[in-house]
Every structure is written in C-alpha cells, then in structure tokens.
User: Fold these one by one.
Assistant:
Number 1:
Amino acid sequence: MTESRVSPPTADLTTLGRRGLVVGGLFAVVSLAGLVSNPTQFFRSYLVAFALVLGVALGSLAISMLHHMSGGAWGLVIRRILEASSRTIPLVALFAVPLFFGLRYLYPWADPGRVAADEILRHRAIYMNPTGVAIRLAVCLLLWTVFAQALSRMSKRQDDAPEPGLERKMRLVAAPGLALYCLLVSVVSVDLLMSLDLHWFSAIYGIYVVGGQAISGLAFTLVVCLFLARNGPMQEVLQPRHVHDLGKLLLAFTMLWAYFALSQFLIIWSGNLPEEIGFFHDRLTGGWGAVSLALPLFHFAVPFVFLLSRNFKRDLGKLVWIAGLLLFMRWVDLFWLVAPTFHPGKLSLHWLDLTTPVALLGIWLREFARQLAGRSLLPVNDPALAIALEVHAHD
C-alpha cells in the first residue's frame, strides 16, 4: 500500500478548514449583532444550530461504534472521517455554553414567575431546572467524549503497530457505548428540545432524534468522501461497492427516521388527547403546514426513490446530492421541532435562523479538518483492510 493511499491531503484539508473558519467567523460576527439587537430570536436560532452540529458529531460517533460491532469494508474506508467528527465533541461542548445564558428566552421552566404560576411546571421543577439540565448535559457530553477518545486512541494504537485482540477491545467499548449513546441522546433531546413545551410529551421523541443524527453523520461523511476522492488518496481507495454499501446504509437510516416520525404522528393523532395533539396542531396550521409537508417529501420520499436505484447508490457524485439534501432537511427538521413552539400556526423565518447554523458549522468544520489531517485516512494495520481494498472484477 503506497503512502499516497493512506496519507490525508493535508494542504486541501488545511484550506478547507481555513475557509470554514473564515466563513464561520464572518457569520458569527453577524449573528452576534443579532444577539445585541434581538437576544430572544438569537437564542432560539442558536438552539437549532447547536442541535444540528451536535447531531453531525454524535451521529458520526454512533456509526463508528456500529461499525466496530458489525464489521464490513464500508466502515473501514470511512473510519477516519467518523473518528475525526467524533473527536470534535469537546468543541461542540463549548458551543453549548452560550445556551445557558439564554435559558430564560427559551424555556418556561427557566422563568421562576412562570413556574410559580403553572402547576405542571412546579410539579416537574425538581427535574427540569437550569442546574439539573446543565449537569445532565455536561455529564452526557463528557461520556460521549470518553467513548469517542477511547475508540480513537485504540485505533491510533493499531496504526502504530499491529496488536492482537485490539479489534475485540474496540467492540467491547463500542457495544455499551452505542446503547448508552441512545439513552443519553434521549435525555438531552428531552432537556433541550422537548422541554420547550413541558405541557407536551412523546415517548418516542428521543429515538426520533437518534434517527435524525444517524442521517446527519452519514450524510456529512459522504460529502467529505467526495471531497477527498476528488482531491487525493480516497480516489484510489473508495470503490463502487463501498459507495453502494454506504448508499444502502443511508437508505436504511432514512427509512428508520421516517418510521419513527410516522409512528409518533399516528399514535398521537389517533389518540387525539388535548395534552398531546397541540404539538402537531401548531405544526399543521398556517404556514407551518407547508414545512410539515416538505419533511416527508424531501426528508424521505425523494431520497427513498433515488436510493432504491442500485446504479445511483454506486455513483458517489450522484449520492452526494441526496446526502446534501438530507443535511439541509436535518436543519429543516430541527427548525420544525423548535420554531413553532414560539410561533404556533404562523410560519416565521428570521435571518438569524440562517446565519447561526453557518457560523457554528464553519467553525466546527475547521476543527474537523484539523482532526482529519492529523492521521492517515485508513486504519493501516486493521486485519480486514486488505480484503476491504481488494478490487472486484465487477467494479
């Protein structure tokens, strides 16, 4: 295996990171101007942006752990991308800090006056309070960081020298890590998203967010694969069969998200309980009805139709178009979860809703590029790598 097949295109990644930082920094300055002029809207928009970036990092961690448990050539060729995304979780934790300066603009449980006047808020105050939310989020981010760093360190040890049994150790870390990931995402999604309205609840909400994060992580990974394939060593490594497997996985995650979304809707709508149905009523009336229609159409139906094609899934250039669409729809989905709480029945899109995601993603991209450039693009001493890179005749 030649060095060009395993070394990351450092210059290209440095340029990518620098451009991300410049764009992110410029949009961050614009967003800070919005913070001064309209702090309420800033924190509402910032919450959506934070959830989007968190989803990409955590989705990548989950897919990485899934691969360690299941194996397969598809995961070996993207492992370094997933690990680089996972290692950005400490930066994402820093992104969470501004949220706690704006709790009173977002959550009824953070306003003592509203808590005192609402029996439900008083009843849940022992759990839903600023201190409790901050502690739980900090613990969750710490645990995710621990698992991401543990897997990354063992993967680096494997690069340095073959070590028998290391693959089994990584599986032993990944198995509980994946289960804990699902549990902790449920905790954080309830704290940061569902608790925007403590009068409404859904037992499937956390799993719905898990499905969205899996799409975010894989879609971003596919976009990076195209960048690397056009600018360096991944062009020699990534084969149509690998792309096909990734396309099938993206189809599976898309169907899984749609299943969770439909299940939540049907159960709540058929039950028609006053304390539950308001969530969908606010999102199906006024301008929000168009967004509610766009989600099943562009987050599921359109990707589903294209991803059914075998030839489409084997063409990375085409597949990335669907990945890009799904990344955009991940923002739409999170926006749909958050914004109608503050503007029920009336579609409202503020310019901060657009600048804050670009700001956070640009800054995050700089750290991702730095992490990816620091290691080889392939786990060079993994026992399964030789088989994974075999060129098949039909490819």
Note: Confidence is low (pLDDT under 50) at residues 1-5.
Number 2:
Amino acid sequence: MQSVFYFLQLIRYQNLAIIILTLLFAKYFLINTHLGENIEGVEKWILLIFSTTLIAAGGYIINDFYDIAIDMINKPHKVLINKIFTQKTVLFVYTFSNVLALFLGLFISVQIALLQVFCVLSLWLYACYFKKIALIGNVLVAFLSALVVLIVNVLYQQHFLLVYIFGVFAFFISLIRELIKDMEDIEGDKIGACKTFPILFGVKRTKVLIYCLVIIFIIFLFAFPSLDIFGQNISQIGSYIISLLLLFLVCKLHFAVKKSDFHTLSSFCKLLMLVGMLGMVALKMW
C-alpha cells in the first residue's frame, strides 16, 4: 500500500484529478449535451479521459526523471526516483503509459491520436530541453493545459465557443502558475543550468511580467460578457469574481519573498482552476 501511495505521488494524482474533472465538466457544461450520448460516443469519452490521463502521468514521470538533481535541492522530501523507485522502473512505466495512451487514441480518431503524439513529444522535449529555456517551456506547458479543454472541439470536429474561452482561461492560469513555480525553484534551477525567466531577468521583472499577464487576462474576462452567450449578468459576475481573485494573487505576489510564499501562490492558481470549472457549471445552470 505504501508503494501505491508513493506511485500516486509520482504521477501527481491531484493534478490528474483536475484533468479528469476538466474533461468531464467540458463535456457536460460547455457543449450540447445531446452530442456523444450514444454508446459509441460514451466509449470515446472514456477512452479520451483514460488516454489523456495516461499521457499527463507520463509527462510528470519523465519530468521527475530528468530533474532528479534539481529536485534534490528544490524539494528533496518529494524526490522518489532512486529512493523509492528505480530509474529502470519509472522509464518502463513512462513508456508503457504513453504507448497505451496512443493505442487508445487510435480507437477514438486519427486526429486525436496525432494530437496525442504531439503532446507526448512536447512533454518529453519540455522535460529534456524547453523547461530550461526562459518562457518557451512556460508557454508550452500552458498551451498543453489549454489543450485539455480544446481537445473537446477536436473530438467533435466542431467549434464550441465556450470551449475556446475556457481554453484561454486555462492557458493564462497555467502560464502564471509556471512563472511562479520558476521563482519558487530558482535555487535548484540555477544549479541545473536552467535559463528560466527569473534566473535571466530576476524575480522583480518576473513579477512585472505576471502583472502584465494578469492585466491582459482581466481584459479578456471583461470582453467575454460582450459575447452575450448566456446573458451579460452571469458573465459579468463571473468576470468580477475571477478578477478579484487575480488581484488578490497580485497583492500576495507583490510581497512574496520566501520559497514558501511562492509555493502558496502556486497552490492558489490551482484553486483558480477549480473556480473556473465551477464557472462552467454556473454558465450551464443559469
């Protein structure tokens, strides 16, 4: 049982749960519910959720594999490879999960399978190279986070506007969180020869970049009600709530100095993602 617990930590079971919930919420609250209600449609949804989760789990595993030395400094208490699991074991699990995911993707559609190949390669390139390059790795992870939502449009080969809107939401929250995590991990990243934005330009300039992203994000939030998809009232309420949370994030970020401060803000970004999912429910029920 202890090995199972450590394995769940290795694959970031909390983050995987958010991915699963995001896909489920997207299906039931962002698209027309009459789509995919037959047996074939349900099977494709199950396969999509399972394969996407496998790819994400593989991404966390390969990232930890290449970050053993860095994580021994940034978060030594969370390092599991070479302590609990051997490198050979984690590489086998990584390979198996990706192969199984791509195999399942072929049963869904060729487009989904090709998109999943892109995700697998992107996560590997991120772990090996891109995470060490300022902004490139951050933007890539943010884009992959948005794809968790956008893949719904690929599955149905339709353009659901709300799917795109929440895809943008996921992109901004993820990008902000990635930059905050870079500030949190700056010590280990320096030893790992990473060239992240905080290392190249400093923590203060990284904070300024996040402030700019928040401003752009808030502008997007208040452009959303003008689309008048579900009525301006509920859309505006949602925009005000998210904006207030973002302003709270900015205030806390301004005074953040310690590693623990940035870790708390990173967790707060996860809370914002959950608020976004609840927003899906609110828009559907209004």
Note: The chain has one domain: 2-285.
Number 3:
Amino acid sequence: MNRFIDLSHPLEQGQLGFPGDTELSIAVHNTVAAIGYNATRIGMSTHQGTHLDAPYHFFDDGKTVDEIPLDRFYGPATLVDLAPGASLEPSTPITLDMLRPHEAKFQPGAKVIYRTGWDRTFNTPRYFTDYPTLELDAAQWIAQRRIGLLGMDTATPSTDWKQCHWTLLGKGVEIVLVEGLTNLEKLPERFTFIGFPLNVKGRDGSPIRAVAAIP
C-alpha cells in the first residue's frame, strides 16, 4: 500500500498569481437552492498555483501540454533538499556548487525535485519577488544532463526567468518544469511523482494536482 503526500497548493478565491497573469476567479455559477445542483465558474492562468510548463510556454514551435508523453508526468523521482530542516534565505542564489553533490540524481530522463523551503511564503507578494533563484550556469548544467522533469517549491526557477526557461525548455532539452510545489519537507529522498496536467490542447501549461506516492 502507498501513502500519498499532496504537493499542491489549493486553489481559492483571492489567491495571488504571478505578476501580469490572469487573476484567479472562483465564483458560484449555480446552486442547489436555485436549480438543483451546485456548479462553479473558474477563470485563471495556466500557470496559477502548482502548475507545469511545457516548451510552448517560451517557444512558438515547442511542444504543447497535450503533445508531451504521459510518462513524463509520472514515475520514480528524487528529492534534492537544499535546506534540510530549514529554508534558504530570501534571494539565495542556487549555484552549481550546491547541485554538484547531487549529481548522481541528474540522469537522462530523471525526475528531480528540489526543495528551498520558499513555499512557506506562498500567497504573499514576496513569494514572487524574493525567492531563491537558480543561476544560469546551474540551469545550463541541468540542461546538459537531459533530465525529464525538474520540480521546485518556488513560483519560477530564476529571477532571470526568460533566459532560464530558454535553457531548460529549449529544443533538444525540453525539460518539463513543475513550479509552485509544497510539502517537500515531508518527502523521503526517493518517491513516485504524480502530476498530470489538464489535457489542454495546443497550450503552454496547466495547473496540476501534484502528489508523491510512498510505499
């Protein structure tokens, strides 16, 4: 039997989103009292809360969510805890020297999740401004290893978000990026990651219900 750990932030009305994105709206559409059933109207960005990025997010000729094989969203994963028992300080650079001790986990096709502890600031403005940030040489090092999925508990990998996404999502690399994870301190080093997107045809990303399965 597996036990499951929810790695996703719940979606709720009033939740902050990445600056410039569509605001999250969750509103009553119908009620039992009115017509006999409850229904809800939802409007949001494809990058709201816990979500994933497809290459099309930054490349017009990149793979869209529905074009990525399903096995990229499910399977054995490893945790890289960059702040065991604590959290990284605001704006901490995530350097290549911090990742090198975990090099064995960055194998071709691997699913790697790194923890900074920054999820404690979720739904505050600083979550989007002061997060630990992946340095470009570290992103290039990850890209060279051709892993299949990179997850994190920050809203985006780097303050140099454009160049970092170009590096990780570019042709021949195409790493699925899972952003906005939480509860990573509850994970063992090895687990099964489950994080399927909505089957949104031809688009750039999707909110997900990310879950860890642990025997």
Note: Residues 113 and 151 are 4 Å apart (CA to CA).
